[in-house]
């Protein structure tokens, strides 16, 4: 959209921090491309994005091993006159002061700056790790996914089978499953990918089973007996640290193999042993 001088303006809001290095280069590349197209380009760093602009961070951060540091992408954008500002709440969130910022930062701004830039009338390019919500705002992608999942739960679209089985969304078993999902799985890329695939499968049949449980107490008790070992195995995730992609994959595969053993291998062994008697 045109700015007050009649030229095009692009505003990039970046919320991704150094903990997700593989996402940190793309916003600067987009800004460089936009500026090269003769558009006034402004980058604003909020939430964890401010930590990326701390002295000594971008210099030692790479997208992948052997690649060039993120500071090179930052300087490339500055060389073509991309303006960079850090939101003051981001400094407080990351225990920083203005003196901690690298020299490429043009200044610290507050929320009023977004209004001054006429954000509603400006073309918004959400940086990697953020998406545009229904209000036209850039918000963290992960936070949006968690919110959507939580909304599904509150509308009966969460742990449908477990809720019907144990009688309430407030049942300890249901709360435990929800906490594992929101606080552990959705905090990693692999966990998000798993939940997306799982939901496509799970919601294709779970409403039917949940409804039938409510109509048939015998079927409800049968389901409870069936899923209790699964719920118990998932509770083990409360005692481990799921704070990395490797840990989620490792423990996730372990839980899957454990349940394959309980639901398939063990019955086969029992049946085979009985037949030999």
Task: Describe the model.
By secondary structure, the chain is of the alpha/beta class. It folds into 2 domains: 9-139, 3-Layer(aba) Sandwich (Hypothetical Protein Ychn, Chain: A), CATH 3.40.1260; 156-276, no CATH class. The protein contains 12 helices and 7 strands. The chain has helices at residues 26-36, 49-52, 70-79, 88-93, 111-116, 141-154, 160-166, 172-183, 189-202, 206-215, 217-234, 245-276, and strands at 9-14, 40-45, 83-87, 107-109, 123-126, 130-132, 138-140. The strands form 2 sheets. Strands 4-3-2-1-5 form a 5-stranded parallel beta sheet. β3, α4 and β4 form a beta-alpha-beta unit. The radius of gyration is 25 Å and the shape is elongated. The model is unreliable at 153-157 (pLDDT under 50).
């Amino acid at each position: 959209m045109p700015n007050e001088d009649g030229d095009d303006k692009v505003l990039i809001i970046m919320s991704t921090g150094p903990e997700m290095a593989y996402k940190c280069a793309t916003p600067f590349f987009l800004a460089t491309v936009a500026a090269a197209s003769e558009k006034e380009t402004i980058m604003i760093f909020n939430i964890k994005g401010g930590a990326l602009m701390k002295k000594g961070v971008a210099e030692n951060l790479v997208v992948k091993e052997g690649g060039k540091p993120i500071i090179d992408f930052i300087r490339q954008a500055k060389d073509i006159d991309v303006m960079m500002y850090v939101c003051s709440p981001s400094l407080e969130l990351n225990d920083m002061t203005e003196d901690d910022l690298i020299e490429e930062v043009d200044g610290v701004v507050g929320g009023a700056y977004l209004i001054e830039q006429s954000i509603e009338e400006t073309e918004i390019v959400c940086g990697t790790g953020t998406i545009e919500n229904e209000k036209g705002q850039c918000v963290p992608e992960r936070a949006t996914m968690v919110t959507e999942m939580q909304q599904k739960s509150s509308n009966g679209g969460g742990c449908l089978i477990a809720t019907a089985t144990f009688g309430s969304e407030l049942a300890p078993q249901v709360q435990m499953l929800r906490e594992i999902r929101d606080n552990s799985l959705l905090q990693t890329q692999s966990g998000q990918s798993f939940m997306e695939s799982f939901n496509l499968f799970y919601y294709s049949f779970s409403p039917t089973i949940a409804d039938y449980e409510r109509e048939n107490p015998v079927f409800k008790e049968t389901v409870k007996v069936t899923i209790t070992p699964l719920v118990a195995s998932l509770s083990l995730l409360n005692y481990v640290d799921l704070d990395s992609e490797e840990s989620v994959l490792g423990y996730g595969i372990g839980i899957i193999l454990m349940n394959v053993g309980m639901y398939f291998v063990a019955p086969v062994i029992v049946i085979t042993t009985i037949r030999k008697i």
